[in-house]
Amino acid sequence: MSENSKAKKNSSMSWKYSNALESIEHISISPVYKLFIGGKFVNPISKKYFHSSNPANEKKLAKIALAGKSDVNKAVLAAKSAYDNIWEKIDPKERGKYLFRIARLIQEKSRELAIIESLDGGKPIRESRDIDIPLAAAHFFYYAGWADKLDYAFPGRKASSIGVAGQIIPWNFPLLMAAWKIAPALASGNTVVLKPAESTPLTALKLAEIIQEADLPAGVVNIITGDGTTGELLVNNPNVDKIAFTGSTKVGKMIINSLAATKKKYSLELGGKAANIICEDAAIDQAVEGIINSIFFNQGHVCCAGSRLYVQESISNQIISKLHSRMDHLILGDPLDKNTDIGAINSKAQLKRIKMYLDIGKKDGGEIYQSKHSIPKKGYWCAPTLFTDISQSHRIVQEEIFGPVLAIQSFRTIDEVIAKANNSPYGLSGGVWTDKGSKIFQVSKKIRAGVIWANTFNKFDPTSPFGGYKESGIGREGGLEGLSPYVNIVNRN
Amino acid sequence: MINPIMVYNNRIDQVGCSERVNRIFSRSIKTESKIWALYKILSMIDLTTLEGSDSPGKVKQLCYKASHLHDQYPKLPQVAAICVYPSMVSIAHKSLKSTNIKTASVATGFPSGMTNCKAKLDEVRYVIDEGAEEVDMVISRGHFLSGELNYVSDEIAQVKTACGKVKLKVILETGELNTLDNVRMASDLAMESGADFIKTSTGKISESATPTVVLTMLEAIRDYYNKTGKKIGMKPAGGISKSKLAIQYLVMVKETLGNDWLTPNLFRFGASSLANDVLMQIIKQNKGNYQSSNYFSLD
Questions:
Q1: Helix spans in chain B (H)
Q2: What is the CATH number for A380?
Q3: Which of A431, A442, B275, B282 is deepest in the core (most CB within 10 A)?
Q4: Measured between beta carbons, which residues in chain A are less than 8 angstroms from residue B31?
Q5: How far apart are CA A212 and CA A39, in angstroms?
Q6: Do A446 and A477 belong together in one domain?
Q7: So where are chain B's domains?
Q8: B46 CA to chain A: closest CA distance, Å?
Q9: Interface test with B, best of A17, A435, A455 (most B CBs within 10 A)
Q10: Looking at the structure, do residues A200 and A301 belong to the same domain, yes or no?
């Protein structure tokens, strides 16, 4: 068919975007990945492996080593030896040099990393390309700058490194979380054993290749893959001096229990159920867009997602009807298509959990709205979902779902919404939308959460500290404050 | 008479609006969907000449071009309309007689609108007598900015009465309104007062259609439709000379108003040099390489 007749045929139909797939020809994924210990990829002593697969089509991507007890031990010893013999002693500006090098290599390979992130985790290429990978590089750049300026970071006091940091990261932002953990740890003179999430280990392993290419001294960063038991072994290893964990509040509590009365320091970034508050004097269309970004970004797999929406009653119907029409314009499908807004749910287990909450919400009497999308046959998918007619007493309002599910309630007065926003065991983030500057300060000062966004949502920057109140965590990542969990501070004499 | 100030309190956040624009503009339009868009754009163009130096000869040439965009290439659509000054309307109307292309005229003291209401209405009646099928009026920005919204509203309503069934496009001249809040208010005002189309600019000042302004106006049209069921058209004008930007605007229309608005009846581009760039892209999509601009007629 010639282009002419194609165009003619099209002209009677409504306009649909053609596929715009990102090419995957130039990326390389090995069939098997070993453990990265002491600067080399080594076979697991455990002799065990698992698979990482593409959640958009359930195809296996690679075979991944599963680190057992001896492997964890070996990695920790490699990190300890690198700490004692090299990393603690070298000139801090040398540490900075390596971090800058890693940052530049991430930028150089950004397209490949973005594609692998989308293949392994199901997130749209638009997000991995424009958000995950550039931010990961930015974190390395930012902390590279601190490496030789630690004396200025804590004026009048002296900061010294801790030792071996055991770091456990989640599956929602695999490379970005690795950067959040590794960059401040190395900048402040610690060495690292990192355990990526079971369902998304690939970009961390690509990072291991980058670390090799950057000539980082052997053992300064070790990356061991595995499941929950590997993480547990790392937490309990006696030679680890500090644990940094990002993940669920349930696991966070288990970690605190096992670290109680040990010398180990810890920082935890846990769950959230953020309140996103839309006041009646907000810019409506921009607020609607903000709601979309707050809950459907990364399929809602975001610990700081604005999953509890509070809309002032006078504009509630307007906001909800605009949300419906905006949701119908979202494009759900192949994560590698540049026009995809909503990718695949990260894993079968997570999809099951989300579906469980959809059932609970319906059973508890919530009014459900799901946007009209054709769902691909293969893979794990969930259409963007809203619940209305619900209250603080509903489980879908109280518990973290970690999926594209928004619980909407109306409110009448500012005092009421502040009370409701704080009525949660979590306190990671929040949002407020109003045209009135004074109201932004009035509300944000009273909400107990680590980050409050005003007239925007889900914005991240390496210079800005991130972390939770209450059951959302301990310690901060990012910014100057992000160095604190990785140093011992003494008064200078 | 309602007091418009009481009705219009739609706030626009500049930063959020730009972010939405960036997201819309990052859509990747390829292959068949691109061809479809390029053909559609041609059919939505108001081919425009608005110079003090316009002469019958120039207008005739432009009218010929309007219906013969690129004769080497059969089955191309025609542009939607020719847009000229009042004194050129009869020439354009005659030249376009054998085509479906509409004759549009600017009126009401274009581009500044700095004349009295009677003169404006006389001008509108004059261009309609001369054969104009569409009228592009300008609003009184001075009155708008000094808060005399009722004056602006009444003027639009009177022009609409004078137009009768003739399509009325109301030019807000957004470059002189300064804020998106004002753009939104002026859009609402124009639609409530009888506009069939709202249009960004005259093309006579340095700032013409900007993406945030166009998005704000499209959102106003959507809200007006949801409130009243009436479909108002949109015409960005000025500074749109490349296909890529025009396609991005179609994406904006589709994702704000839906496919229903992707028709010349409800969406137009006011442009003088866009057509040739679109033609060049259509031929590139077909033949795989770009032709020299010398193969496309300049009228």
A1: 4-7, 14-25, 31-43, 56-67, 89-95, 117-130, 141-145, 149-163, 180-192, 211-228, 243-257, 274-287
A2: 3.40.309.10
A3: A431
A4: 18-19
A5: 7
A6: no
A7: 11-284
A8: 20
A9: A17
A10: no
The CATH number covering residue A185 comes to 3.40.605.10
Q: How far apart are CA A380 and CA A331, in angstroms?
A: 15
How many residue pairs from chains A and B have C-beta atoms closer than 8 A? 90
CATH label, B11-284, candidates 3.20.20.70, 3.40.50.970, 3.30.70.890, 3.50.50.60? 3.20.20.70
Catalytic residue among A279, A303, A304, A382: A303
Q: What are phi and psi of A224, to 5 degrees?
A: -120, 130
Our count of domains for chain A comes to: 2
User: Would you list which residues of chain A are within 8 Å, Cβ to Cβ, of chain B?
Assistant: 2-4, 6-8, 10-11, 14-20, 126, 130, 281-287, 289-290, 321, 329, 338-339, 435, 455-456
Distance, CA of B100 to CA of B105 (rounded, Å): 16
Instruction: Note whether A388 and A264 are same-domain residues.
Output: no
- Do A291 and A249 share a structural domain? no
Examine the domain organization and report whether A166 and A246 are in the same domain.
yes
In a structure prediction context, what are the per-residue pLDDT tens digits for chain A, which is 493 residues long? 344 444 444 444 689 999 999 999 999 999 999 999 999 999 999 999 999 999 999 999 999 999 999 999 999 999 999 999 999 999 999 999 999 999 999 999 999 999 999 999 999 999 999 999 999 999 999 999 999 999 999 988 899 999 999 999 999 999 999 999 999 999 999 999 999 999 999 999 999 999 999 999 999 999 999 999 999 999 999 999 999 999 999 999 999 999 999 999 999 999 999 999 999 999 999 999 999 999 999 999 999 999 999 999 999 999 999 999 999 999 999 999 999 999 999 999 999 999 999 999 999 999 999 998 999 999 999 999 999 999 999 999 999 999 999 999 999 999 999 999 999 999 999 999 999 999 999 999 999 999 999 999 999 999 999 999 999 999 999 999 999 999 999 876 5
To the query of whether residue A112 is one of the catalytic residues in this protein, the response is: no
Contact A165, A193 (CB under 8 A): yes
For residue A339, give the chain B residue with the closest CA.
B27
| Structure token digits, residue A366 | 């919530």
Q: Is A303 noted as a catalytic residue in this protein?
A: yes
Terminal CA-CA length for chain B:
47
Question: Across the interface, do A284 and B11 touch by the CB < 8 Å criterion?
Answer: yes
Query: What domain range includes position A355?
Result: 275-462
